[in-house]
Amino acid sequence: MKINTCLPLTKLATALALLLPFAAFADSAKKLEVFSWWTSGGEAAALDALFKVYKERTPGVEIVNATVAGGGGSAARPVLQTRLAGGNPPDTWQAHPGWELLGQYVEPGYCEPLNDLYQSENWGKVLPEQLVKLLTKDGKQWCVLAGVHRGNDLWYNKKVLEKAGIKIGDTISIDEFLADCAKLKAAGVTPLAVGDSGIWATAQLFENTLLGTVGPTGWQDLFSGKMAFDDPKVKQAAQSYAKLLEYQNSDHSALTWDQAIKAVEEGRCAFSSMGDWAHGEFTKANLKDDVDFGWVSHPGTKGGFIVVADGFTLAKNAPHKAETVSWLKSIGSKESQEEFNPLKGSIPIRTDVDKSKFGPYHQWSMKSFASDALLPSCVHGEAAPAAFQQALNDAITQFVVDKNVDAFCSALVQAAKESNITK
Ligand code: GAL
After folding, report:
1. Which domain holds residue 339?
2. Are residues 157 and 231 in the same domain?
């Protein structure tokens, strides 16, 4: 009797065991895991726009929105590294082209090449060569860009400046800016909003000030080892940065970058030096370009465009490869580029988008991109190896406390040596 009842059960178990792989396949075929750090108001809204286009193009796929909060990816990247090293990759993840993409993800073999996709989508015809170069290694492309941010922007609250009698033209020098800051401080207004609970945000203030002092050629020289990090110009940049820190909000280390932008939105601070993901926050808050807020190149940086480009990869052994390829096609499409970038603050990378869909800030940034020197960001992992990026953050952490220019520059010289940034 016992044997009789057991038999059908055994058969059932066998049938289930046979079906299981198909069930797993059916399940996995409906998903796509996208890993990013886009959690601020503007970032999340823009990411949603990418998802919306994808869902229209590829119905029936469940998107797993795997985000790790923390601007600049400061918290996300270590989590990602652990997953990659453990053989548990998301299908696709956010990556900056240049060193971050090629050194941290392609070199160790975590990515699939995308040259076939670049060919089938004809992207070579509509993408700027200089950008494609940044994501190419061994003749193959390794990510698809959703947009390009300009890192070296100075944002301001128009009403606050008007009230203080300060006018900003289409360029500003560091001395003019320091004079404006002094005037604001004397009037009881906090001049500069910084939200460096993630140290990268104040490193960004330094990066922008560095470009403003060494200029585009100096920038290229620094990151190719032709100029040393203790060059008098770098020291001068550190001195200016130290002066700027005197004008920042006292609660800077408790705030995130987007909370600092909020302080500008609400008129609690006048300025903030931040990449144009800040524009995404202004947009999310329904504030209008040139009416509620304005912008200018960070002091001294007119003519230079610090590139912070956002790409997505295809993981080697991606659990949902077909869905991921569709995702990459989708974010590279005209439609995605036109929906995503107005919300994100970045500009589309395609040269064939409908420019009339973009407002005044984007028009300004597109013009700058077309005519200015394009320079990779160090703070966002493009210009130098991860070890140098980390060393810069560590040196900045120390500098904010001791303002020791010589020690700061020596630390960078040492880091450049260790990272092989040489002539
Ligand atoms: C950058 C990224 C941008 C923006 C910013 C703040 O690294 O490229 O898209 O999100 O961080 O989180």
Report:
1. 30-149+308-376
2. yes
State both tokens at 401: 């406390």
DSSP class of residue 315 equals B
Tell me: do 50 and 85 sit in the same domain: yes
With 0-12 / 13-18 / 19 or more C-beta atoms within 10 angstroms meaning exposed / middle / buried, residue 263 is buried
Terminal Cα-to-Cα distance of the chain (whole angstroms): 84
Same domain assignment for residues 160 and 266: yes
Between the CA of 71 and the centroid of ligand 1 the distance, in Å, is 6
CA-to-CA distance for 13 and 292, rounded, in angstroms? 66
Of 310, 314, 311, give the one whose Cα is nearest residue 32.
314
Share of the chain above pLDDT 90, in %: 92
pLDDT tens for 163-204 read 999 999 999 999 999 999 999 999 999 999 999 999 999 999
Q: How far is the CA of 190 from the centre of ligand 1 (A)?
A: 25
Pocket test for ligand 1, best of 40, 99, 277 (most atoms within 8 A of CB): 277
DSSP helix, strand, coil percent of the chain (3-state; round to 5): 55, 15, 30
Pairing of strands 31-36, 62-67: parallel
| Closest residue by Cα to residue 111 from 133, 144, 79, 134 | 144
